[in-house]
Amino acid sequence: MDQAIGSTKPDSPDMAAAPAVERGRFIKNAWYVGLWASELPAGTLVPQTILSEPVVFFRKQDGTPAAILDRCAHRFVPLSMGTLVPGDRVQCPYHGLEFGADGRCMNNPHPPGTIPTAAHLPSFHVVEKYSMIWIWMGDKPADPSLIPDYSCLETSPAIHITDPGYLSIKANYELIANNLLDLSHVVYVHGGILGSPGLEQSDIKLETHGDVVTVSRFVKDVETPGMFQMMAPEGYERGDSFTSISWYAPSNLLLKTGSCKTGQPQESGTGYWGIHLLTPETERTTHYRYSAVRWNVMTQGDEKNEQIRQKIGELRTFAFADQDAPIIEAQQRRIVASTTKLEPALLAIDAGPVRCRRILDRLLLEDR
Ligand code: FES
Ligand SMILES: [Fe+2]
């Protein structure tokens, strides 16, 4: 299903569903990023609230990840305050109950040592893929082939991949996904870094394939945004600029962006893949992990490429933390503070978020 956003009438049936504000529930049967793999060293217990549930991650002795409820079945102490003991068990710090990677209570050190049924805890499906620990918290089969393709994180040389980024955002994940899918805000929020005069006049296109929504923009012969001038040799001060961002329901996104010489194939230019991973922490807070991977690298030399790697990481962190986050968090606060039911005035540029919301509405029904 393809559509030029400029042709979408705000009052058309497709726009009838307002962007989500608060839902009060989550899609559980989906893959979310629990942690970057590097956030889970062997021998550690790492707590993380996901979909409002306390989860503790750890690695088994064979190195594979595991995750169980981070709340002891006895007196509800966080197990992440405890210790990893031999046999891939987590020992509660309070009275020493031990839980296996499957959540089952394996040892009660207090005589007579019986283990009540209520002592067993839920565990979660986890898989390590593309330098991340993915978690599935629903009860339907967890199929790792449903994880979106972030293989560029594994196949590209490390010198072209920015450090794994993390921000805690005080806003619902849908507001952040809407921001990422909304290419029109770039000119206003990220002028100079990612935006350039003229970009707002570009055509924005919307496509849907299954539960994947892609918004793309192409603009001919403009001043190359600062980020891409830095990544290109001389002669790329002007050219065609392009961005395409895909949202994989419910909350992971992959962007491809770059610049090339006017009228040349996009692949002849240079740019990066942007990895955006949103994991709902609560209804009003989100774990936001991100990274970038350069494609068709044109600059030479390790020293130069390391400088560019660092700079891309810094600029993107600045864009998210100092430019996007304050707006999204303020938006969330206004929404929460409203004493009346909010009905947003929809513009043609909202077609992407509206399409996503329709998919989320269906997935929420299927999730029950
Ligand atoms: S609270 Fe965990 S063993 Fe008592
Ligand atoms: Fe942004």
TrEMBL record:
Which GO MF terms are attached to this record? 2 iron, 2 sulfur cluster binding; metal ion binding; methyltransferase activity; monooxygenase activity
Task: Report one GO cellular component.
Answer: cytoplasm
State if Transmembrane helix is listed as a keyword.
Answer: no
Give the record's keywords alphabetically. 2Fe-2S, Iron, Iron-sulfur, Metal-binding, Methyltransferase, Monooxygenase, Oxidoreductase, Transferase
Give the source species.
Eoetvoesiella caeni
One Gene Ontology term of the biological-process aspect is: methylation
Q: Which domain of life is it from?
A: Bacteria
Q: Among its keywords, does the record have Oxidoreductase?
A: yes
Classification via InterPro entries: Cholesterol_7-desaturase, Rieske_2Fe-2S, Rieske_2Fe-2S_sf, VanA_C_cat
What protein name applies here?
Vanillate O-demethylase monooxygenase subunit
Domain Rieske span(s) in chain numbering: 31-135
CDD domains assigned: RHO_alpha_C_DMO-like
